[in-house]
Amino acid sequence: MNTKSADFGVGSVRRNILRIALPMTLAQLINVLYNVVDRIYIGHIQGVGTTALTGVGLCLPIITIISAFTQLFGAGGAPLFSMARGAGKGRRAERIMGLSFALLLLSGLIVSVLCYLFRRDILFLFGASEDTYPYAEDYISVYLLGTLFVMTSLGMNFFVNAQGFGVMGMLTVLIGAVLNLLLDPLFIFVLELGVQGAAIATVISQGVSAVWVFCFLTSRRAVIPLSVRRIAFDGRLLGEICALGLSGFIMAVTNGSVQIICNATLKRVGGDMGDLYVGVMTVINSVREIITLPVQGLTGGAQPVMSFNYGAKKSGRVLECIRFMTVVCVIFTSVAWLVLFLFPQAFIRLFNDSPELVTYGVPALHIYFFGIFMMALQFAGQSTFVALGKSKQAVFFSLLRKAFIVIPLTLLLPSVGSLGVNGVFMAEPVSNFVGGIACFTAMALTVRKELAAPEA
Q1: 1 part of a folded domain
Q2: Quick check: is 315 in a domain?
């Protein structure tokens, strides 16, 4: 067993976090290419770019909900895996990883089949029109073929990082993202496959990433290798994995639900400009991914370090992790807010240079991202709850910000005064302030007392 990358309980806490977080953050930034490059190329298809971009934007909730299962079983299993390693329970860690892998594959198969069978009803429910549906259907029909690849590459990559192999985790994303970047123009423009070409490029890229992760985790280089032969169902372990993954799952599902509600509301409130506003929201969602993925990279890198030291009963090191993670996340999102405020048109034109999209997109972007640094508090508090096994608190605050704040406000604010579509964009900053403060305060109050106990 390789132990070189295994022990997070010694050395500098910051160095341990950065050893995982920097490659993971870079991987998350590269992952933006995976999620966003399709939209960039599609938005510049001659003559139909804006409509095609809107159509692909309607698929985002489905993609988000699919990725939610990687949170449930991948991000849910990884902290348990790290705690088991920290406590010296290698066999338990092996069983956790094996069961998580099986659950990822099973859920991926079920979700992809259901989404494909009901894709027309789903897309119209999400705000499609007769103009945008053909593009949405072309993209999602192909994308669903790669669902098992997504489950393996994203879900099992948590276990690569949990073992201390941050660079390998980064390469998982890098290989697929670079391949997607190269294949997109080939399939979209050279072979003239349009939106379907973008989806084909994505599926191929995800497949290569999935093979990379699987080969690494089953090799001798892994601290604890994945053994397919030893995978066994364990109801109690399933409950523990789901309990920790439920917060991330709910956060992803509610993100998808918010996208659905926003698109449908914009279509209704926007009238003749409804499709255009859905296109604006597609751009905003893409920009949000650019900003939040580095934050997720840092908090994701801090999680295995926190979980390991929590399992090893080293409370001081856990507190140091929390402080470092929070400060860096707040600084990054504050800088991102300033850049978005000063250069909004540059971000919009990255996806489409339609004068209408820019005109309506700039004020929407300013409203949506107001005070986004408060979101960092939500991520920091959420990650700490998950890393320390506080599943109930993690689930509650996942629901609070999106399900209990954003969705109701998205439905109500457009009818307040003359807010209209601006009310849809205003719901997000309100939730960042309320949810961020509530989550971080609760984490500080409920966790600090526990971590004040003498170290082992």
Answers
A1: no
A2: yes
Average pLDDT over residues 41-55: 81
pLDDT tens per residue across span 103-153: 999 999 999 999 999 999 999 988 888 888 999 999 999 999 999 999 999
- Write out the two tokens for 15: 């160095």
Contact 95, 230 (CB under 8 A): yes
Q: Residue 268: how many CB atoms within 10 A of its CB?
A: 12
Name the residue with tokens 């990559």: 157
Contacts of 241 (CB under 8 A, 6+ apart): 72, 73, 76, 77, 80, 96, 99, 100, 103
SS3 58: coil
Compute the half-sphere exposure of residue 248: CA atoms within 13 Å on the CB side of its CA.
32
Phi/psi at 20 (5° precision): -95, -45
Residue 361 lies inside a defined structural domain of this protein: yes
Single-letter amino acid, residue 5 = S
Domain around 371: 13-451
Distance (Å, whole) CA 232 – CA 98: 8
**d(Cα 285, Cα 308) in Å, to the nearest integer?**
33
At 34 the pLDDT is 65
* Number of Cα atoms under 13 Å in the Cβ half of residue 76: 31
CA 201 to chain centre: 20
| Tokens linked to 293 | 């993925």
Q: How far apart are CA 59 and CA 50, in angstroms?
A: 15
425, two tokens: 């964009």
Give the long-range contacts of residues 407-412, CB within 8 A, separation 24 or more: 407/254, 407/257, 407/258, 407/261, 410/258, 410/261, 410/262, 410/265, 411/261, 411/265
Tokens, residue 374? 């408060």
Q: Count the Cβ atoms, other than its own, within 10 Å of residue 137.
A: 19
CB-count exposure of residue 92 (10 Å: 0-12, 13-18, 19+): middle
User: Measuring CA to CA, how many Å separate 254 from each of 34, 227, 395, 403?
Assistant: 22, 33, 11, 6
| Count of structural domains within the chain | 1
In a domain, 373, yes or no: yes
192-210 pLDDT, tens per residue? 888 899 899 999 999 999 9
Region of 219 on the Ramachandran plot (φ > 0 left; ψ -120 to 50 alpha; else beta): beta
Count CB atoms within 10 A of the CB of residue 341. Answer: 13
Which of 259, 299, 314, 264 minimizes the C-alpha distance to 283?
Answer: 259
